[in-house]
Known about the structure:
The protein contains 3 helices and 13 strands, in the order αααβββββββββββββ. Helices cover 30% and strands 25% of the residues. β2 and β3 form a beta hairpin. By secondary structure, it is α+β, with helices and mostly antiparallel strands. The longest helix is centred in the N-terminal third of the chain and has 31 residues, at 40-70. The chain has a 5-stranded mixed sheet, with no helix packed on it. Strands 1-4-7 form a 3-stranded mixed sheet, with no helix packed on it. Strands 5-10-11 form a 3-stranded antiparallel sheet, with no helix packed on it. The chain folds into 2 domains: 2-70; 81-208. 20% of the residues are buried.
Amino acid sequence: MRSRLATRSTRLVLAAAVVTALAATTACGPEDPSETGAAAPSASTSSSASAEGTESGNNGGGEAGKGGTEAPTGDKSGYGQSCGTNDLDFTVTWEAQPISHYLVTAKAKSGITCYLDVNTPSVSFGSGADGVASPVGQGGEDPIKLSGSSVAYAGINVKTTEGEGGKQFENVIIATSEDDPNPAEVELPDAPTVDKPIVTNWSTKRDEVIPRIV
């Protein structure tokens, strides 16, 4: 009788031990990978790949931007631009024939290529409104390219009134346009009496810039 009870007790103890072992194994199973770092390589690789991709993308973009910035564009300074007054050299001479007038000659400064795309020069004597030359619309080519030895001409008649009225001036103020911030002051060959002056358009032909009232 005791032998059977002992045997049965032994079986119960063994069964309990097995259940306990299985429970322990089941409880520890899900925790072991994280504790041992089994899942870490996957997360680390993904992060590393993402970081490398971002860094590569940034470097690629940076190099592309740098390349775009440093791409040669060529030196186009002084070419294809509108002529400003400070791009030109002016001379004024006295012409007696076929009628007396002053001839303005404009030439591009060394190394400059530009275009006179405003047909009529701005010409004045002194700072008063009565010294501003009125355009008469004679001559004219639009635009005129100035470079090297090429020149443009304009004609000025300083006095279009009869009698002795007017003021004397030794210089004339010339600009390529009315709003040019850098007008040129050019010395005249003499000191003429100025009263209601007129000016022609620019032209490459001298005989087209003889100022007449029409």
